[in-house]
Amino acid sequence: MQSRSVQALLATLWSSSCLAASSSKTPDFATSEAGNPFVDGWYADPDTQFYNGEYWVYPTASRPYDEQTYLDAFSSPDLVHWTKHSTILTADDFTWAHRAVWAPAPVYRNGTYYLYFGANDIQTDSELGGIGVGVAEKPEGPYRDPLGHPLIGAYHNGAQPIDQDVFVDDDGQAYIYYGGHSHANVAKLNDDMISLGTFDDGTTFKEITPENYVEGPQMLKRNGIYYLFWSEGGWGGPDYAVSYGMSSSPLGPFDRIAKILQQDEAVATGSGHNAVIQVPDTDIYYMLYHRHPLGSTNGNDRHLAYDRLYFSDDGTIEPVKMLVHDNFEDGDMIGWETYGGDWDAKTNALRGTASSGGLALLNTNFSDFIYEADVKISKKGNNNCVGYAGLFFRVSGPSSDDDSFKGYYAVISTSGSLVLGRTDATGVIVLGREEVGIESTEQHRIRVTADGSSIHVELKGERHAVISVKDDVYKSGMDGVRVFGIEAEFDNVNITRISSS
Ligand SMILES: *[C@@H]1O[C@H](CO)[C@@H](O)[C@H](O)[C@H]1NC(C)=O
Ligand SMILES: *[C@@H]1O[C@H](CO)[C@@H](O)[C@H](O)[C@H]1NC(C)=O
Ligand SMILES: *[C@@H]1O[C@H](CO)[C@@H](O)[C@H](O)[C@H]1NC(C)=O
């Protein structure tokens, strides 16, 4: 009996520690933990489903229309590690589709995976194309044509048949929301999911166009409220954005409440065409969207990102902040550009080696911010020269050829000091130095607070040190890290705007 109850106790402990382990995996992040963009490549118009314990993301391949003949997908168990699934659907399998395969909308029903997409970008009803549907036995396809023709192949209420989203309500009724050219429709889908139903008044298409609507509708139901999201502005430019409305009915009306996702001049532009990720059985939501890198002028230069979506107590949605964070847990350094040195993130930290200088920069442009990162000198150089590693900020003009860039730096050096300085083509100016006796292989968290002309550097932890100066030669620019003469590791990068005082 005694050993039995000990066994029972052990079993209880065992199972509760299992529970603890699994719940600690719940992705409860402020933004993409391993950085945005969270996957590599040019993609747009993402939609998502949770299939078989994994998050699936289905985007448009962001290329010239004639090259948009296929769809890729990505899956992840934790929103951090992503697996690419290439060519899950190809226009070759749809006799009527040949270009502009856009904005896939996934849904699972009754043993079948469905993927709705727009194709051919028709401008008139005399052209063949519109919204099609593919069916597959697995989330990764291959998706095949059950119809042999588009599901919606003509304009209704002025809505171009593109940009569909499919939503299944709690009562089992499925709806398709769609429409380009500034008109949005909703229609019922029959239980077979490949034919359209009718509303009580006998019509098939009901116009629900909200104020400012351009394209990209997306339906979410939460606590009995129907949220319609849509995109405004032009998809190729910086102003593309997401707004939303709320209704007690899936058919609206959806009065425009607010714009909740838009460009941030410090982070990215053209943030739009969203979907919403819900962590199953939680009230944790993420805004999933595409955006352009700062300064990019190619409309197809679109990348996938997600950030936290917070609801207020009254059910309205707070503006989404595009945050800058990377813990390199995906073993990747997507979004970082390097200038000299050897860099990788295979150890789940950003590791750089450079006999002379090496820079790794994020394409950000903050003016006033708090920038934190862990810095570790992991290997000293072979010669007796002093090496250093640390944070660089308000950087401009980086080049792979020389060190003529401009910016500020806050570094730790192999001679044991914390140094704040400014650099340009003519050399460096030391603004402050503290001897702190830093040893190699210690990890240090460096925190830079730059607010107008006041620049404050703090070395956190045991060897605590502070340098505060006034200097305003550089007012904004890129953020990143640099290594010189040694090998160093950087981790848990986090940059947050502060409003100027
Ligand atoms: C679900 O699939 C089964 C087998 O194909 C079919 O008999 C049944 O009618 C389907 N149910 C619905 C609601 O479509
Ligand atoms: C960065 O932002 C500042 C304003 O904060 C702007 O003047 C500057 O042109 C921007 N730099 C780039 C490279 O876009
Ligand atoms: C990032 O920095 C901000 C400001 O210091 C802080 O509020 C936030 O918690 C940090 N986030 C992470 C993930 O470290």
TrEMBL record:
Keywords: Carbohydrate metabolism, Glycosidase, Hydrolase, Signal. InterPro entries: AL/BT2_dom (IPR010496), Glyco_hydro_43 (IPR006710), Glyco_hydro_beta-prop_sf (IPR023296), Glycosyl_Hydrlase_43_Enz (IPR052176). It comes from the Eukaryota. Pfam families: 3keto-disac_hyd (PF06439), Glyco_hydro_43 (PF04616). GO terms for molecular function: hydrolase activity, hydrolyzing O-glycosyl compounds. Residues 1-20 form the signal peptide. Residues 328-495 form the 3-keto-alpha-glucoside-1,2-lyase/3-keto-2-hydroxy-glucal hydratase domain. The record marks 163 as: Important for catalytic activity, responsible for pKa modulation of the active site Glu and correct orientation of both the proton donor and substrate. The keyword Signal applies. GO terms for biological process: carbohydrate metabolic process. Belongs to the glycosyl hydrolase 43 family. This is 3-keto-alpha-glucoside-1,2-lyase/3-keto-2-hydroxy-glucal hydratase domain-containing protein.
